[in-house]
Amino acid sequence: MSFVYATEPGLTPHEFIDILRRSTLAERRPVNEPATIAGMLTHADIILTARAQSGLLVGVSRAITDYHYCTYLSDLAVDYDYQRQGIGQELIRLTHETAGLGTRLIYFPLPPHRTITLTSACADTTRAGQSILSGMLHRLTVRPLTTPYALPKLNSSP
Questions:
Q1: Most exposed residue of 29, 64, 80, 97, measured as fewest CB within 10 angstroms of its CB?
Q2: 39-61: pLDDT as tens digits
Q3: CB–CB of 17/37 below 8 Å?
Q4: What is the pTM of this model?
Q5: 3-class SS at 158?
Q6: What single string gives the DSSP state of each residue in 35-69?
Q7: Topology adopted by domain 3-106
């Protein structure tokens, strides 16, 4: 089966949400917040799509880039029924090509419904101010943030 790949900066929030749902990426995106989705699309630097010959949207790539140093591929969604046909790989390739092959492509795919184990280290400060990393392992379950995180206000007094 062949697909039509194109840049689509005018992709509608409705189509974007639909492909997110058909790809299972909706579980990790604010699909119930239309204004957020619209902003995600409006402020993306690159939006590439893959469509079946019928016109059905079967894949999308959304990226933010400076076109010189780095490109962050923030969304890569392929309709579950069309996966394993190379659509995602082609969208990644085209995203990098569109941003410029001299940029560093950054993409952190997260598999659905999995616990992610991170290895972290505790830093001990020596007299010289250098960090020595000690080997402590911590298990972290990544969960969606239910409330916005607010940074503490800095005390303005000296």
A1: 97
A2: 999 999 999 999 999 999 999 99
A3: yes
A4: 0.70
A5: coil
A6: HHHHHHHHT-SEEEEEEETT--EEEEEEEEE-SSS
A7: Aminopeptidase (3.40.630)
